[in-house]
Amino acid sequence: MSKLSELLPTGGGQNSVEFVASGALASGQTVALRSDGKVEAISATAVAQVLGSTVAFESAATTYISATFDSNSNKVVIAYKDGGNSNYGTAIVGTVSGTSISFGSAVVFESANTLWTSATFDSASSKVVIVYHDAGNSGYGTAIVGTVSGTSISFGSAVVFESAYTQNIAATFDSALSKVVIAYEDAGNSSHGTAIVGTVASTSISFGSAAVWNSASSSYVSATFDSASSKVVIVYQDVGNSSHGTAIVGTVSGTSISFGSEVVFNAGTTYSPSVEFDSSSNKVVVAYQDGANSNYGTAIVGTVSGTSISFGSEVVFNNANTSANRQFGVTFDSFANKVVISYVNGGDSDKATLIVGTVSGTSISFGSAVVFNSVNTYWIASTFDSNSNKVVVAYQDVSGSTYGEAVVFQNTATNNTSFIGITAGAISNSATGKVNVYGGINEAQSGLTIASDYYVQANGSLAAGATSIPFDISSASYTQSFSVSSQSTDPVGLVFSPDGTSMYVVSGVYPPGAKNIFQYALTTAFDISTASLSKDFNSSGQDSQARGIQFNADGTKMFINGVTGDAYYQYSLSSAYDISTGSYDSVSFSFSSQDGNMEDVVFNADGTKFYGVGLNTSKIFQYSCSSAFNLATASYDSVSLTISSQDNSPRDLFFKPDGSKMWLLGRQNNSIYQYSLSSNFNLATASYDSISFSVSSEETSSGGLAFSANGEKFYVCGGTGDDVNQYATTQTAFVTTVKAGQAISATTINMKDLT
Known about the structure:
By secondary structure, the chain is mostly beta strands. It has a 30-stranded antiparallel β-sheet that branches. Strands 1-35-34-2-3 form a five-stranded antiparallel β-sheet, with no helix packed on it. A five-stranded antiparallel β-sheet has the order 36-62-61-37-38, with no helix packed on it. A hairpin with a 4-residue loop joins β46 and β47. The longest helix is centred in the first third of the chain and has 4 residues, at 4-7. The model is unreliable at 1-13 and 731-735 (pLDDT under 50).
């Protein structure tokens, strides 16, 4: 059969352009255009998520921290109150290199007690503006202009913008009119919410007249500039209206500002509302502590229209008490097109945590939380360094002598927004080849659905609708189940072979001497509907109550834990992953000193570490093998993780292949709990992500947990139905707005409709 392009009229075929490949490109590969004119494969790992090391910028008590990015000098400026130097207002310049930051010398900008500092960058004058409460001058609202040079900053003279006691101060820059806008609580005028417009000239700033935006007490003030509407958005706690979270839109004209009507976004006591503009979606995002909902960390998306703002639905990003001292660190990463929220997680020992959010329409969804300081933390501020494409978070380390510290965070980013076309054939690295571009047809696809629109995903694949987010339990959905009741009662252990063609189930209840471990063959990898019993094994010669099963990397070793002898047992398989060929190695390792009821055995990728789930203690325990996958060389690491705050009946454990994530299955709540490990496979660095997924609709007697190799499916077995339940990590919202075209056959995509 002729190719479709051969049947098309002249000029209607495959529009293509020749490009040089950066890296080897497969046929049918979606590609992005680089700044050097070459094309590269679209990849979600174009930039990986990395958290740098903590760097101290002030070796003394540091409070009232604010941060901004100077895009003229490509430096980060942090302003703060220096408790080690008479509480003076101080600033310091930071330089980001890779995922680290270095600092110059601190510079005093106010020789008096300085509170409520807020820093912004005036891109028109290339100056940093710091606003603050000057306790040395009756608490007046004051501003000062700073000029960054190299790794230092110098200041002009301080200028009073409010001759009264001024607090809860926030500054932002109106880039449309080149004005600095300061919002604040004017204690000299009944604590009314007030704003004023400033104009920077050289090293000074002048102000117009102040304008009241809320004729009532206004606390926790935050402000941002919406460049899509050319409006200023102020959010605050409206004490005069039951402390509700409230927003208002301001319009700058000359040296004055006028306001629309107030809009409530949270009808409860709202603490520390903090607002940032997302220039990718043209929305504002507000993060806050919701006093009406157990003080959970909550976010909401706002859309400015004219002089008003409307909001979508509230989204909880931290299911625990969530604080921020004055404000959350809310920053828009314009490289990854993500919002990054930094906060103090009261549900996890007040650890400093950040979470990445993606705005879609009028809502926001979140990834996994990342702990950036594993001890008590306060006074968080953040900014985005657009030169290095990194987020910088500054904070007070309470457990570190309350010093001021900073850390650099690099978001995962994709280059799919630079999509240019699809390769017509394979192109070797540095070779020249054809790329089908707008107006063309690509015939190098497979499995497309005719008439469906296809979009370029972050990982470079084409998707017509819902797609899977690997290892994302928050978006999971139940798909099907497989009964093992003919073999197993109350199954408690579950694992798959790496290729997904074999599934292994450990029976929790069985007659003495009967088979207790069962192997099922899957004709379609990781699809339990295709499973059938194929092999079995009896471990009762070693232990009458097996609980978990694990294999080494090549399937020639099998490990089983039993609670009768409180030990792990090692077996050899003469045929890889075939349990019927198993024979006991006469090698075991006792865990009785840690827990008399260990529910699982899990190894890391190279077999040098393994882990047990203690039912009696509600702890996870870590062990080492000096020789890989050899229990004869095992020893306890004296490392454990208490998980009773999540579930006091833990049953099974699973690690992400790289060891950066861990999931625990608990029977108390019949839920899966997600943890992050800042050092891969090091249990001592594990912290709960405040992410869980309930399986109680399918299983109320949970026993075993497993994931598919690609993380797009996971499985839970249990005694409710004596079955294995399968779930998919599918999320329809993951489909991007980067359109590739429309499928006109199973192998062909028409790239003419890219609107």
